[in-house]
Amino acid sequence: GINAEYMGDPQAASDGCMQRWGVRPDIYSAVIDYGGWNIKHTATNIFFTNGGLDPWRGGGVTSSLSDSLIAVVIPDVGHHIDLMFSDPRDPPAVIATRQAQRKAIAQWIATRNRN
């Protein structure tokens, strides 16, 4: 991965990849392929989740962009906790987020099936 020293410095990150692996990342490919922050014009049916304690949260979608581009920040949890197996000790916010995910996905499927 990229060390913290490269965070916020794309050139340093690229140099680090070249030095370690002999390749340079195409830092613009996701923007070109998926629209970057203009994703609301190119995508639908995505449920973005971020943990309130996740250090990657700053680069994520943290507020909903439309009815089908939903974003939730789950307080006091880390990276991808909502994608882990359910556990009786899961915080209420994680349980609620999983319920919201299931509801949104069911709605998207129902809408697709009607069309």
Task: Fill in the keyword field for this structure.
115 residues; alpha+beta; two-stranded parallel sheet; 3 helices; 2 strands
Q: How does this model look, in words?
A:
- It is a single chain.
- The chain is globular.
- Strands 1-2 form a two-stranded parallel ribbon.
- The longest helix has 23 residues, at 92-114.
- The N and C termini lie far apart (42 Å).
- By secondary structure, it is of the alpha+beta class.
- The mean pLDDT is 88.
- It is built from 3 helices and 2 strands, in the order ααββα.
- The protein has helices spanning 10-21, 29-34, 92-114; strands spanning 46-51, 69-74.
Instruction: Give the overall shape.
Output: globular
Assembly type: single chain
Flag low-confidence runs: none
* Radius of gyration of CA atoms, rounded to a whole number: 17 Å
pLDDT averaged over residues: 88
In total, the number of strands is 2
Q: Give the count of helical stretches.
A: 3
- Specify the structural class: alpha+beta
> Which bin fits the share of residues in helices?
25-40%
Secondary-structure element order, N to C: HHEEH
Report the biggest beta sheet as strand number plus sense, adding barrel if it closes: 2 strands, parallel
End-to-end C-alpha gap: 42 Å
Strand order of the largest sheet: 1-2
- Which percent range describes the beta-strand content? 5-15%
